[in-house]
Amino acid sequence: MTELESILADLPNLAIAVSGGVDSMTLAHAAHRAGLPGLQVVHALSPAVPAEATVRVRDHATRFGWRLTEVDAGEFADPEYRANPVNRCYFCKTNLYARIAHVTAGPIASGANLDDLGDYRPGLIAAAEHRVRHPFVEAGMDKAAVRALARDFDLADISELPAQPCLSSRVETGIAISARDLAFVARMERALAPHVPQGTDLRCRVTHGGIVVEAPEPDDAMRHIADELCAGERRRFLGFRPYRRGAAFLHGRA
């Protein structure tokens, strides 16, 4: 038995928070393969969750026989979250784990891995407050190990997925989170995705100055798409730049 299997074996009636990304999806597969009694996969619905992620979770639940529960993430009812402070993720995860606690009496787990511990992740504070387990961290697994496990499970559709944090992560700190902005971000990224190599990091950023798209080597077609979408909503388009992880996170802003 592997270290991960041993950890999961001690978590009957586990509820796994599954966002639709490679980490949480792979954890759900590992737990399902381990035959955990009472296992529940919980997916949160929110304007901040890309529609493609929800489709992916539902598809895997149907194909692999997961017991799937969908909940309203609830963060948009929280004014502290909508204000988009530097610790926005804390309020997001606080609401999420509270909602999951309403549908399970068992332990809750996330797909966090060792690499996540090196970033500023206020969501991990909320996880600790709700006693959320992180089986990948406990098993000493980083992102590369999670991807390797997904490949071992023959999950080609998720093993090479680029990082895809919630849509609110595209909005610069201090700009209030709105469903309208998030819908625009999703529309822009969906329109541009076919024009970049598969697996490439692509971000539409809502900044204090206007809209910025992070993508590799934009061509004329991409520039035309971005110009048209911004013009259609009377948004100021500032142009393209290379992808920068966490570029919307501004230190020093409340």
Short description:
This protein is α/β, with parallel strands linked by helices and about 250 residues long. The protein contains eleven helices and seven strands.
User: What fraction strand?
Assistant: 5-15%
Rg (CA only): 18 Å
The order of strands across the largest sheet is: 3-2-1-4
Measured distance between first and last alpha carbons: 46 Å
Tally of helical segments: 11
Q: What overall form do the CA principal axes indicate?
A: globular
- H/E order of the elements? HEHEHEHHEHHHHHEEHE
Mean pLDDT reading:
94
Structural class: alpha/beta
Low-confidence segments, given as residue ranges, are none
For the largest beta-sheet, the strand count, sense and barrel status come to: 4 strands, parallel
What share of residues is helical?
40-55%
β-strand number: 7
Architecture blueprint of SSEs:
Blueprint lengths: L2 H7 L5 E3 L4 H12 L6 E6 L5 H14 L3 E5 L6 H4 L5 H14 L6 E2 L12 H8 L5 H4 L4 H10 L3 H4 L19 H14 L10 E4 L4 E4 L5 H13 L4 E5 L13
Parallel strand pairs: 1-2, 1-4, 2-3, 6-7
Antiparallel strand pairs: 5-6
